[in-house]
Amino acid sequence: MKQDPIYVTQPFLPPKEEFLPYLEKIWNSKQLTNGGNLHQELEKQLSDYLEVSHISLFSNATIALMTALKLYNLSGEIITTPFSFAATAQAIDWNNCKPVFVDVEEGTFNIDPSLIEEKITDSTSAILPVHVYGTPCNVEEISNIALNNNLKVIYDAAHSFGINYKGKSLLTFGDLSVLSFHATKVFNTFEGGAIISKDIDSKEQIDEMKNFSLTENGDIKNSGLNGKLSEIHAAMGLLQLKYIEFCLNQRKCVSDKYDKAFKDILGISITQDDVRWNRNYSYYPISIDKEVFNKSRDDVFENLKSNSVFSRKYFYPSLNNMTYFKTKSDDLNLSSKFSTEILCLPIYPDLKPEEQERVIEIILK
Ligand code: T4K
Predict the structure, then answer these.
(1) What is the value of pTM for the model shown?
(2) 67 lines ligand 1 (CB under 6 A)
(3) 209 in the same domain as 125
(4) Is residue 8 situated within a structural domain?
(5) Distance from C-alpha of 135 to C-alpha of 163, rounded to nearest angstrom
(6) 143 assigned to some structural domain
(7) Residues of the chain with pLDDT > 70: what percent?
(8) 343 φ, ψ to 5°?
(9) pLDDT digit string (tens) for 176-190?
(10) Could you tell me if 27 and 170 lie in one domain?
(11) Which of 184, 301, 304 to mutate to test the pocket of ligand 1 (most atoms within 8 A of CB)?
């Protein structure tokens, strides 16, 4: 018998009735976009919730990343991780810069700071690390390297909504951080994203850039594009924020249940808690060691699929193995290895206990 599909994620949708008053507001005001009231309110509420001083909302994280790099007019080479989603390297490419990949570390799957300096050249202008699955990068070491080599640090924090590191928002590290509010993320505005900046001058410049760089008198003095978030997206964000603690708790319950099921299974590794940071349970990655588990990651993926469970191989292939970014490099071994071993399992607030049991049972069988 065909079973109901289970996806790697499903967006949390607040009750429709609660969305209708926002629609009324939008219909009455006829302000659909260009920094309306709901947009302003969401920026305010998010900066309070995330404990950051300046936030600029965007239509998605990819455009936000492109804008963040453009803010500093970066050129030449930008050091980044190959273990990420396409958007990380694409934002570099759209800035006419070259992504230079540095391998990742065991445990966090994030860029390995001890390998960064050997890749710095006279052309290096910045570092673009990713907090993969919301796990913080080694922000202190990255900051030291950047300081010593006069480099900007822009974090791709697409997965890092609500993460604190040593008691303060992870988004306050580096020069800028970029969040994603895509439908598949912990906090979603259908599509959306944001740049977190440290000072009002940067925020004002970013806000101008995302609005074609038009100045008040209609002049253009800088590179610009359209990266604005509409009022309807902002309305969704305001409603999502009301339910964010519920969503995070639900995700934690799912994660705890997987932990219990997999913690003693030889050949399966799970994410370990660390007292220095909290988790947002945006993804539930497991690493499968074929030699020990007797089945490869791809075997498990196919097996789940044939039972209508659609897990995801985030991130396969490693970016350095993608045709467009192909890098002749034999020192990106861990990223390539993780991309063949990691499987992201279904995790989202509405995942039913019996659905999760089905996922676990298929894997353990
Ligand atoms: N940096 C990093 C590190 C990122 O991971 C991402 C995006 C970005 C930057 C760029 O952020 P944005 O520009 O997107 O804001 C998804 C997302 O499209 C992408 O946002 C995300 N990372 C990436 C890791 O995953 P796909 O191709 O896997 O998405 P899709 O459509 O196959 O969705 C996965 C599952 O989610 C579906 O099987 C069903 C469910 N789903 C999805 C959507 C879109 C729904 O139930 N409803 C939906 O509306 O890329």
Answers:
(1) 0.97
(2) no
(3) yes
(4) no
(5) 8
(6) yes
(7) 100
(8) -130, 130
(9) 999 999 999 999 999
(10) yes
(11) 184
